[in-house]
Amino acid sequence: YVLTDGNPKWERKNLTYRIVNYTPDMNPADVDKAIQKAFKVWSDVSPLTFKRIYDGNADIMMSFETGDHRDNSPFDGPNGFLAHAFQPGNGIGGDVHFDEAEYWTKVSNGYNLFFVAAHELGHSLGLSHSTDPGALMYPTYSYIEPNEFHLSQDDINGIQTVYGPSDNSVQPTGPTTPVTCDSKLTFDAVASMRGELLFFKGRYFWRKHPQMTEVDLNFISLFWPNLPSGIQAAYENVERDQVFLFKENKYWVLSGYDLVYSHPKSIYDLGLPKNVKRINAAFNDENSGKTYFFVGNKYWRYDENSRSMDQGYPKKIINDFPGIGKKIDAAFQYGRYIYFFIGTRQFQFDPNVKRVVSVMKSNSWFNC
Amino acid sequence: SSSGFPVAPETEDEDKNNQLVENYLQHFYNLETDKQSRFKNKNIKTVTEKLKEMQAFFGLKVTGKPDVDTLEVMKKPRCGVPDVGQ
Protein backbone atom coordinates (compact mmCIF):
# COMPACT_ATOMS: atom_id res chain seq x y z
CA TYR A 1 0.00 0.00 0.00
CA VAL A 2 1.06 3.61 -0.45
CA LEU A 3 -0.13 6.55 1.60
CA THR A 4 -0.86 9.77 -0.27
CA ASP A 5 2.05 12.23 -0.26
CA GLY A 6 1.99 14.28 2.95
CA ASN A 7 -0.21 11.72 4.71
CA PRO A 8 -3.46 13.70 4.47
CA LYS A 9 -6.24 12.21 6.63
CA TRP A 10 -9.63 13.11 8.07
CA GLU A 11 -9.37 14.29 11.67
CA ARG A 12 -12.87 13.01 12.41
CA LYS A 13 -13.85 9.33 12.31
CA ASN A 14 -17.51 9.99 11.57
CA LEU A 15 -17.72 11.25 8.00
CA THR A 16 -20.63 12.19 5.77
CA TYR A 17 -21.25 11.55 2.10
CA ARG A 18 -23.77 12.75 -0.46
CA ILE A 19 -24.71 11.36 -3.87
CA VAL A 20 -25.07 14.56 -5.88
CA ASN A 21 -26.48 13.08 -9.12
CA TYR A 22 -27.16 9.76 -10.85
CA THR A 23 -26.13 7.97 -14.04
CA PRO A 24 -28.92 7.02 -16.42
CA ASP A 25 -27.16 3.62 -16.83
CA MET A 26 -28.46 2.25 -13.50
CA ASN A 27 -31.60 2.66 -11.50
CA PRO A 28 -30.98 5.02 -8.58
CA ALA A 29 -31.64 2.35 -5.97
CA ASP A 30 -28.82 0.25 -7.42
CA VAL A 31 -26.50 3.28 -7.40
CA ASP A 32 -27.36 3.91 -3.73
CA LYS A 33 -26.75 0.26 -2.87
CA ALA A 34 -23.43 0.07 -4.75
CA ILE A 35 -22.11 3.20 -3.07
CA GLN A 36 -23.32 2.16 0.37
CA LYS A 37 -21.58 -1.18 -0.08
CA ALA A 38 -18.40 0.61 -1.20
CA PHE A 39 -18.31 2.67 2.02
CA LYS A 40 -18.92 -0.49 4.05
CA VAL A 41 -15.74 -2.01 2.55
CA TRP A 42 -13.74 0.62 4.49
CA SER A 43 -15.90 1.00 7.60
CA ASP A 44 -15.67 -2.77 8.16
CA VAL A 45 -11.90 -2.61 8.62
CA SER A 46 -11.34 0.78 10.25
CA PRO A 47 -12.84 2.99 12.99
CA LEU A 48 -14.44 5.18 10.29
CA THR A 49 -18.19 5.59 9.96
CA PHE A 50 -20.05 7.09 6.99
CA LYS A 51 -23.45 8.72 7.15
CA ARG A 52 -25.34 9.71 4.04
CA ILE A 53 -26.82 13.19 3.83
CA TYR A 54 -29.16 14.42 1.09
CA ASP A 55 -28.38 18.09 0.78
CA GLY A 56 -25.74 20.60 1.69
CA ASN A 57 -22.01 19.95 1.76
CA ALA A 58 -20.84 16.47 2.81
CA ASP A 59 -17.23 15.49 3.48
CA ILE A 60 -17.35 13.22 0.42
CA MET A 61 -19.46 14.49 -2.49
CA MET A 62 -20.01 11.84 -5.19
CA SER A 63 -21.08 12.79 -8.69
CA PHE A 64 -21.09 11.67 -12.33
CA GLU A 65 -19.24 14.14 -14.55
CA THR A 66 -18.40 14.41 -18.25
CA GLY A 67 -15.25 15.64 -20.00
CA ASP A 68 -13.87 18.87 -18.58
CA HIS A 69 -15.80 19.40 -15.35
CA ARG A 70 -13.76 22.28 -13.91
CA ASP A 71 -11.43 20.43 -11.59
CA ASN A 72 -8.34 20.51 -13.78
CA SER A 73 -8.69 16.78 -14.44
CA PRO A 74 -10.93 16.36 -17.49
CA PHE A 75 -12.37 12.96 -18.25
CA ASP A 76 -11.56 11.32 -21.57
CA GLY A 77 -14.76 9.69 -22.81
CA PRO A 78 -15.41 5.92 -22.81
CA ASN A 79 -12.72 3.67 -21.22
CA GLY A 80 -9.34 5.14 -20.29
CA PHE A 81 -9.88 7.11 -17.06
CA LEU A 82 -12.97 5.74 -15.31
CA ALA A 83 -13.08 7.97 -12.23
CA HIS A 84 -10.94 9.95 -9.83
CA ALA A 85 -11.07 11.22 -6.28
CA PHE A 86 -9.39 13.88 -4.17
CA GLN A 87 -7.39 13.38 -1.02
CA PRO A 88 -8.92 14.25 2.37
CA GLY A 89 -9.51 17.97 2.94
CA ASN A 90 -12.05 20.76 2.80
CA GLY A 91 -13.97 21.73 -0.31
CA ILE A 92 -13.25 19.34 -3.12
CA GLY A 93 -11.16 17.27 -0.74
CA GLY A 94 -12.50 13.70 -0.52
CA ASP A 95 -14.85 14.16 -3.44
CA VAL A 96 -15.33 11.35 -5.97
CA HIS A 97 -16.11 11.88 -9.67
CA PHE A 98 -17.23 9.10 -11.99
CA ASP A 99 -16.86 9.52 -15.76
CA GLU A 100 -20.45 9.53 -17.02
CA ALA A 101 -19.17 8.54 -20.46
CA GLU A 102 -18.57 5.00 -19.12
CA TYR A 103 -21.31 2.39 -18.99
CA TRP A 104 -21.94 1.83 -15.27
CA THR A 105 -23.49 -1.40 -14.03
CA LYS A 106 -23.94 -3.56 -10.99
CA VAL A 107 -22.77 -6.68 -12.85
CA SER A 108 -19.77 -7.72 -14.96
CA ASN A 109 -20.43 -5.92 -18.21
CA GLY A 110 -19.49 -2.27 -18.54
CA TYR A 111 -17.81 -1.02 -15.35
CA ASN A 112 -18.99 -2.21 -11.97
CA LEU A 113 -19.88 0.91 -9.95
CA PHE A 114 -19.38 -0.74 -6.56
CA PHE A 115 -15.83 -1.79 -7.38
CA VAL A 116 -14.78 1.58 -8.86
CA ALA A 117 -16.43 3.51 -5.99
CA ALA A 118 -14.67 1.36 -3.38
CA HIS A 119 -11.32 2.06 -5.09
CA GLU A 120 -11.91 5.83 -5.32
CA LEU A 121 -12.94 6.00 -1.67
CA GLY A 122 -9.48 4.67 -0.84
CA HIS A 123 -8.15 7.92 -2.31
CA SER A 124 -10.81 9.96 -0.50
CA LEU A 125 -9.50 8.48 2.75
CA GLY A 126 -5.81 9.10 2.07
CA LEU A 127 -4.49 6.11 0.16
CA SER A 128 -2.58 6.22 -3.14
CA HIS A 129 -2.20 3.42 -5.69
CA SER A 130 -0.71 0.15 -4.52
CA THR A 131 1.71 -1.97 -6.54
CA ASP A 132 0.02 -5.13 -5.23
CA PRO A 133 -1.98 -6.55 -8.16
CA GLY A 134 -4.46 -8.10 -5.74
CA ALA A 135 -5.15 -4.86 -3.90
CA LEU A 136 -8.32 -2.82 -4.38
CA MET A 137 -5.99 0.21 -4.66
CA TYR A 138 -4.20 -1.24 -7.69
CA PRO A 139 -4.69 1.36 -10.47
CA THR A 140 -6.19 -0.74 -13.29
CA TYR A 141 -9.78 -1.98 -13.38
CA SER A 142 -10.44 -5.66 -13.11
CA TYR A 143 -13.86 -7.02 -12.48
CA ILE A 144 -14.45 -9.18 -9.43
CA GLU A 145 -17.78 -10.82 -8.77
CA PRO A 146 -19.13 -8.56 -5.94
CA ASN A 147 -20.16 -11.55 -3.84
CA GLU A 148 -16.60 -12.86 -4.05
CA PHE A 149 -15.02 -9.52 -3.24
CA HIS A 150 -12.72 -9.38 -0.18
CA LEU A 151 -10.63 -6.34 0.69
CA SER A 152 -7.01 -7.44 0.48
CA GLN A 153 -4.66 -7.48 3.47
CA ASP A 154 -2.57 -4.85 1.68
CA ASP A 155 -5.54 -2.42 1.64
CA ILE A 156 -6.43 -3.22 5.27
CA ASN A 157 -2.84 -2.51 6.32
CA GLY A 158 -2.97 0.80 4.43
CA ILE A 159 -6.19 2.16 5.90
CA GLN A 160 -5.27 1.01 9.42
CA THR A 161 -1.90 2.76 9.13
CA VAL A 162 -3.84 5.99 8.58
CA TYR A 163 -6.77 5.58 11.00
CA GLY A 164 -5.80 2.79 13.36
CA PRO A 165 -7.37 -0.62 13.84
CA SER A 166 -11.04 -1.38 13.52
CA ASP A 167 -13.23 -1.08 16.62
CA ASN A 168 -14.29 -4.70 16.14
CA SER A 169 -13.09 -7.04 18.88
CA VAL A 170 -11.76 -9.37 16.17
CA GLN A 171 -9.48 -7.57 13.75
CA PRO A 172 -10.50 -8.16 10.12
CA THR A 173 -8.05 -9.86 7.78
CA GLY A 174 -8.01 -10.14 3.98
CA PRO A 175 -6.48 -12.29 1.23
CA THR A 176 -2.84 -11.77 0.32
CA THR A 177 -1.65 -11.91 -3.25
CA PRO A 178 0.44 -15.00 -3.99
CA VAL A 179 4.03 -14.30 -4.94
CA THR A 180 5.19 -16.07 -8.09
CA CYS A 181 8.62 -17.06 -6.80
CA ASP A 182 7.63 -17.79 -3.23
CA SER A 183 9.40 -21.04 -2.29
CA LYS A 184 6.34 -22.04 -0.26
CA LEU A 185 3.92 -21.59 -3.19
CA THR A 186 1.35 -24.36 -3.69
CA PHE A 187 -1.37 -24.69 -6.31
CA ASP A 188 -5.08 -25.57 -6.30
CA ALA A 189 -5.14 -26.88 -9.87
CA VAL A 190 -3.02 -26.97 -13.03
CA ALA A 191 -4.13 -27.52 -16.62
CA SER A 192 -2.84 -26.95 -20.11
CA MET A 193 -4.84 -24.73 -22.47
CA ARG A 194 -3.98 -24.40 -26.14
CA GLY A 195 -0.28 -24.84 -25.57
CA GLU A 196 -0.14 -22.68 -22.46
CA LEU A 197 -0.17 -23.77 -18.84
CA LEU A 198 -2.61 -22.41 -16.29
CA PHE A 199 -1.78 -22.60 -12.59
CA PHE A 200 -4.77 -21.84 -10.32
CA LYS A 201 -4.50 -20.41 -6.80
CA GLY A 202 -7.41 -18.85 -4.90
CA ARG A 203 -8.89 -16.07 -7.02
CA TYR A 204 -5.86 -15.97 -9.29
CA PHE A 205 -4.21 -17.98 -12.04
CA TRP A 206 -0.79 -17.81 -13.60
CA ARG A 207 -0.56 -18.13 -17.37
CA LYS A 208 2.65 -19.54 -18.74
CA HIS A 209 3.86 -20.57 -22.16
CA PRO A 210 6.36 -23.44 -21.67
CA GLN A 211 8.88 -21.94 -24.11
CA MET A 212 8.67 -18.35 -22.81
CA THR A 213 10.13 -16.98 -19.62
CA GLU A 214 7.33 -14.52 -18.84
CA VAL A 215 4.59 -15.64 -16.52
CA ASP A 216 1.77 -13.36 -15.60
CA LEU A 217 -0.69 -13.38 -12.77
CA ASN A 218 -4.36 -12.60 -13.40
CA PHE A 219 -7.66 -12.65 -11.55
CA ILE A 220 -9.75 -15.63 -12.73
CA SER A 221 -12.73 -13.28 -12.88
CA LEU A 222 -10.94 -10.95 -15.30
CA PHE A 223 -11.25 -13.57 -18.03
CA TRP A 224 -14.17 -15.63 -16.75
CA PRO A 225 -16.45 -13.51 -14.55
CA ASN A 226 -18.81 -16.43 -13.96
CA LEU A 227 -16.14 -18.79 -12.70
CA PRO A 228 -15.69 -19.05 -8.92
CA SER A 229 -12.38 -18.64 -7.17
CA GLY A 230 -10.78 -21.65 -5.52
CA ILE A 231 -10.80 -24.01 -8.53
CA GLN A 232 -9.83 -27.44 -7.12
CA ALA A 233 -9.02 -29.50 -10.22
CA ALA A 234 -8.71 -28.90 -13.96
CA TYR A 235 -7.75 -30.71 -17.17
CA GLU A 236 -7.71 -30.07 -20.88
CA ASN A 237 -9.26 -32.32 -23.50
CA VAL A 238 -6.93 -31.27 -26.28
CA GLU A 239 -8.87 -33.11 -28.97
CA ARG A 240 -12.06 -31.25 -28.22
CA ASP A 241 -10.24 -27.99 -27.37
CA GLN A 242 -12.03 -27.91 -24.01
CA VAL A 243 -10.85 -27.29 -20.45
CA PHE A 244 -12.80 -28.72 -17.52
CA LEU A 245 -12.65 -26.90 -14.18
CA PHE A 246 -13.86 -28.43 -10.93
CA LYS A 247 -14.94 -27.03 -7.59
CA GLU A 248 -16.73 -29.08 -4.93
CA ASN A 249 -19.20 -31.35 -6.75
CA LYS A 250 -19.58 -29.09 -9.79
CA TYR A 251 -17.63 -28.42 -12.98
CA TRP A 252 -17.48 -25.77 -15.69
CA VAL A 253 -16.35 -26.17 -19.29
CA LEU A 254 -14.27 -23.73 -21.35
CA SER A 255 -14.47 -24.20 -25.09
CA GLY A 256 -11.43 -22.47 -26.48
CA TYR A 257 -11.15 -19.53 -24.14
CA ASP A 258 -14.86 -19.05 -23.50
CA LEU A 259 -17.06 -20.42 -20.78
CA VAL A 260 -19.55 -22.70 -22.53
CA TYR A 261 -22.39 -21.94 -20.13
CA SER A 262 -22.50 -19.96 -16.98
CA HIS A 263 -24.15 -22.66 -14.87
CA PRO A 264 -21.96 -25.56 -13.72
CA LYS A 265 -22.73 -29.25 -14.23
CA SER A 266 -22.66 -32.00 -11.66
CA ILE A 267 -19.62 -34.27 -11.32
CA TYR A 268 -22.05 -37.13 -10.71
CA ASP A 269 -23.10 -36.85 -14.35
CA LEU A 270 -19.60 -38.12 -15.13
CA GLY A 271 -20.30 -41.27 -13.15
CA LEU A 272 -18.56 -40.41 -9.90
CA PRO A 273 -20.36 -41.82 -6.82
CA LYS A 274 -22.30 -39.55 -4.52
CA ASN A 275 -19.84 -40.05 -1.66
CA VAL A 276 -17.27 -38.06 -3.66
CA LYS A 277 -17.73 -34.47 -2.52
CA ARG A 278 -14.86 -32.85 -4.44
CA ILE A 279 -11.98 -33.72 -6.75
CA ASN A 280 -8.39 -33.05 -5.64
CA ALA A 281 -6.78 -33.24 -9.08
CA ALA A 282 -7.32 -34.45 -12.63
CA PHE A 283 -5.36 -34.94 -15.82
CA ASN A 284 -6.16 -36.19 -19.32
CA ASP A 285 -3.93 -38.66 -21.10
CA GLU A 286 -3.99 -37.32 -24.66
CA ASN A 287 -2.82 -40.65 -26.11
CA SER A 288 -5.41 -42.93 -24.54
CA GLY A 289 -8.21 -40.38 -24.29
CA LYS A 290 -8.59 -41.33 -20.64
CA THR A 291 -9.05 -38.80 -17.85
CA TYR A 292 -7.87 -39.54 -14.32
CA PHE A 293 -9.71 -38.12 -11.31
CA PHE A 294 -7.85 -38.15 -8.00
CA VAL A 295 -9.83 -38.10 -4.75
CA GLY A 296 -7.99 -38.67 -1.45
CA ASN A 297 -5.85 -41.79 -1.88
CA LYS A 298 -7.99 -43.20 -4.73
CA TYR A 299 -8.52 -42.41 -8.38
CA TRP A 300 -11.14 -43.02 -11.07
CA ARG A 301 -10.61 -43.27 -14.81
CA TYR A 302 -13.03 -41.75 -17.32
CA ASP A 303 -13.20 -42.61 -21.01
CA GLU A 304 -13.61 -39.38 -22.98
CA ASN A 305 -14.65 -41.25 -26.12
CA SER A 306 -17.47 -43.29 -24.62
CA ARG A 307 -18.05 -40.50 -22.07
CA SER A 308 -18.37 -42.97 -19.27
CA MET A 309 -16.39 -44.03 -16.22
CA ASP A 310 -14.28 -47.17 -16.73
CA GLN A 311 -15.18 -50.28 -14.72
CA GLY A 312 -13.08 -51.49 -11.83
CA TYR A 313 -12.56 -48.13 -10.18
CA PRO A 314 -11.73 -46.55 -7.79
CA LYS A 315 -8.23 -47.89 -7.41
CA LYS A 316 -5.51 -46.95 -4.96
CA ILE A 317 -3.21 -44.24 -6.34
CA ILE A 318 -0.10 -45.74 -4.77
CA ASN A 319 -0.59 -49.05 -6.58
CA ASP A 320 -0.54 -47.56 -10.08
CA PHE A 321 1.49 -44.44 -9.44
CA PRO A 322 4.27 -45.61 -7.13
CA GLY A 323 5.82 -42.75 -5.21
CA ILE A 324 2.73 -40.62 -5.48
CA GLY A 325 1.00 -40.60 -2.14
CA LYS A 326 -2.41 -39.14 -1.41
CA LYS A 327 -3.94 -35.65 -1.29
CA ILE A 328 -2.66 -34.56 -4.67
CA ASP A 329 -3.22 -30.82 -5.17
CA ALA A 330 -2.96 -30.80 -8.95
CA ALA A 331 -1.81 -32.84 -11.92
CA PHE A 332 -1.25 -32.40 -15.64
CA GLN A 333 0.41 -34.28 -18.47
CA TYR A 334 3.06 -32.60 -20.57
CA GLY A 335 4.91 -34.59 -23.19
CA ARG A 336 5.88 -38.00 -21.91
CA TYR A 337 5.43 -37.17 -18.22
CA ILE A 338 2.68 -36.61 -15.69
CA TYR A 339 3.38 -33.88 -13.18
CA PHE A 340 1.83 -34.30 -9.73
CA PHE A 341 1.78 -31.32 -7.35
CA ILE A 342 1.68 -32.05 -3.64
CA GLY A 343 2.24 -29.01 -1.42
CA THR A 344 5.47 -27.25 -2.34
CA ARG A 345 6.77 -30.26 -4.28
CA GLN A 346 6.20 -31.46 -7.83
CA PHE A 347 6.74 -35.09 -8.82
CA GLN A 348 7.65 -35.85 -12.44
CA PHE A 349 6.19 -39.32 -13.09
CA ASP A 350 7.09 -41.49 -16.08
CA PRO A 351 4.05 -43.72 -16.80
CA ASN A 352 6.14 -45.91 -19.11
CA VAL A 353 8.39 -47.07 -16.30
CA LYS A 354 5.84 -46.32 -13.57
CA ARG A 355 8.31 -44.34 -11.52
CA VAL A 356 8.93 -40.83 -10.18
CA VAL A 357 11.97 -39.66 -12.12
CA SER A 358 12.39 -36.24 -10.57
CA VAL A 359 11.13 -34.07 -7.70
CA MET A 360 11.07 -30.30 -8.13
CA LYS A 361 9.66 -27.20 -6.50
CA SER A 362 5.99 -26.69 -7.34
CA ASN A 363 6.75 -23.39 -9.05
CA SER A 364 9.68 -24.69 -11.08
CA TRP A 365 7.78 -23.75 -14.28
CA PHE A 366 8.09 -20.07 -13.38
CA ASN A 367 11.88 -19.90 -13.93
CA CYS A 368 12.39 -18.33 -10.51
CA SER B 1 -14.55 -8.42 -24.33
CA SER B 2 -13.22 -10.65 -21.60
CA SER B 3 -13.14 -13.55 -24.01
CA GLY B 4 -10.22 -12.01 -25.90
CA PHE B 5 -7.62 -14.25 -24.17
CA PRO B 6 -4.64 -13.65 -26.40
CA VAL B 7 -4.37 -9.95 -26.07
CA ALA B 8 -3.20 -7.01 -28.12
CA PRO B 9 -1.69 -7.44 -31.57
CA GLU B 10 2.06 -7.28 -31.74
CA THR B 11 2.76 -3.91 -33.23
CA GLU B 12 0.79 -0.78 -33.96
CA ASP B 13 1.50 2.62 -35.50
CA GLU B 14 4.73 3.89 -33.90
CA ASP B 15 3.57 7.45 -33.50
CA LYS B 16 0.31 6.44 -31.94
CA ASN B 17 2.14 4.31 -29.42
CA ASN B 18 4.60 7.07 -28.62
CA GLN B 19 1.72 9.49 -28.08
CA LEU B 20 -0.01 6.98 -25.82
CA VAL B 21 3.18 6.50 -23.83
CA GLU B 22 3.86 10.21 -23.47
CA ASN B 23 0.26 11.03 -22.45
CA TYR B 24 0.25 8.15 -19.95
CA LEU B 25 3.53 9.16 -18.35
CA GLN B 26 2.55 12.82 -18.24
CA HIS B 27 -0.73 12.03 -16.52
CA PHE B 28 0.33 9.30 -14.12
CA TYR B 29 4.10 9.62 -13.66
CA ASN B 30 4.79 13.37 -13.66
CA LEU B 31 6.60 13.31 -17.00
CA GLU B 32 7.32 16.92 -17.81
CA THR B 33 7.50 17.92 -21.46
CA ASP B 34 9.76 20.74 -22.66
CA LYS B 35 6.72 22.95 -23.00
CA GLN B 36 5.82 22.54 -19.38
CA SER B 37 9.21 22.98 -17.79
CA ARG B 38 10.19 26.60 -17.86
CA PHE B 39 13.39 25.82 -15.96
CA LYS B 40 15.66 23.58 -18.00
CA ASN B 41 17.43 21.60 -15.38
CA LYS B 42 19.24 18.35 -15.69
CA ASN B 43 16.85 16.72 -13.24
CA ILE B 44 14.04 16.34 -15.72
CA LYS B 45 13.68 12.57 -16.08
CA THR B 46 13.54 11.28 -19.61
CA VAL B 47 10.72 9.27 -21.03
CA THR B 48 12.86 6.15 -20.68
CA GLU B 49 13.38 6.69 -16.98
CA LYS B 50 9.71 7.41 -16.40
CA LEU B 51 8.79 4.36 -18.43
CA LYS B 52 11.05 2.27 -16.20
CA GLU B 53 9.30 3.74 -13.17
CA MET B 54 5.92 2.76 -14.59
CA GLN B 55 7.10 -0.74 -15.52
CA ALA B 56 8.50 -1.27 -12.02
CA PHE B 57 5.22 -0.08 -10.51
CA PHE B 58 3.20 -2.64 -12.49
CA GLY B 59 5.68 -5.46 -11.98
CA LEU B 60 6.50 -5.55 -15.70
CA LYS B 61 9.93 -6.29 -17.11
CA VAL B 62 11.84 -3.02 -16.67
CA THR B 63 13.09 -2.32 -20.17
CA GLY B 64 12.52 1.39 -20.59
CA LYS B 65 10.96 0.50 -23.92
CA PRO B 66 7.26 0.57 -24.85
CA ASP B 67 7.07 -3.20 -25.38
CA VAL B 68 3.85 -5.14 -25.95
CA ASP B 69 3.19 -5.89 -22.29
CA THR B 70 3.73 -2.25 -21.31
CA LEU B 71 1.41 -0.95 -24.02
CA GLU B 72 -1.18 -3.53 -22.98
CA VAL B 73 -1.18 -2.17 -19.42
CA MET B 74 -1.36 1.42 -20.68
CA LYS B 75 -4.48 0.58 -22.65
CA LYS B 76 -6.29 -0.90 -19.67
CA PRO B 77 -9.16 1.08 -18.19
CA ARG B 78 -8.06 2.56 -14.88
CA CYS B 79 -8.42 5.18 -12.15
CA GLY B 80 -7.55 8.75 -13.19
CA VAL B 81 -5.50 9.51 -10.06
CA PRO B 82 -1.73 9.62 -10.77
CA ASP B 83 0.37 6.65 -9.61
CA VAL B 84 3.15 8.85 -8.28
CA GLY B 85 3.15 12.35 -6.86
CA GLN B 86 0.04 14.47 -6.86
Can you give the mean pLDDT of chain A?
A: 95
Biggest interface, CB < 8 A: A-B, 36 and 20 residues
Strand content of chain A is 25-35%
Strand content of chain B: under 5%
Structural class of chain A: alpha+beta
Alpha-beta content class of chain B: mainly alpha
Low-confidence segments of chain B: none
Number of helices of chain B: 3
Kindly report how far apart the N and C termini of chain B lie: 32 Å
Helical fraction of chain B: 25-40%
- From N to C, what is the helix and strand string of chain A? EHEEEEEEHHEEEEHEEEEEEEEEEHEEEE
Q: Please compute the radius of gyration of chain B using only Cα atoms.
A: 14 Å
Oligomerization state:
heterodimer
Q: Strand sequence of the main sheet of chain A, in spatial order? A: 2-1-3-5-4
Question: How many runs of DSSP E, i.e. beta strands of chain A?
Answer: 25
What does this structure look like?
- The complex is a heterodimer of chains A (368) and B (86).
- In chain A, the strands form six sheets. Chain A has a five-stranded mixed β-sheet, with helices on one face. In chain A, strands 12, 13, 14, 15 and 16 form a five-stranded antiparallel β-sheet that branches. In chain A, strands 17, 18, 19, 20 and 21 form a five-stranded antiparallel β-sheet that branches.
- In chain A, strand 13 and strand 14 (250-255) form a beta hairpin.
- The longest helix of chain A has 16 residues, at 28-43.
- Chain A has helices spanning 28-43, 113-124, 153-163, 220-223, 317-320; strands spanning 14-19, 49-52, 60-65, 83-85, 96-99, 104-105, 111-112, 189-193, 196-201, 204-208, 215-219, 233-237, 242-247, 250-255, 258-259, 265-266, 281-285, 290-295, 298-303, 308-309, 315-316, 330-334, 337-342, 345-350, 355-361.
- In chain A, helix 1 (28-43) packs across helix 2 (113-124).
- The model of chain A has no long low-confidence stretch (mean pLDDT 95).
- Chain A is α+β, with helices and mostly antiparallel strands and 368 residues long.
- With 86 residues, chain B is mostly helical.
- Chain B is 38% helix and 0% strand.
- Chain B has helices spanning 14-28, 47-57, 68-74.
- The longest helix of chain B has 15 residues, at 14-28.
- In chain B, 22% of the residues are buried.
- The model of chain B has no long low-confidence stretch (mean pLDDT 79).
- Chains A and B meet through strand 4 and helix 2 of A and loops of B.
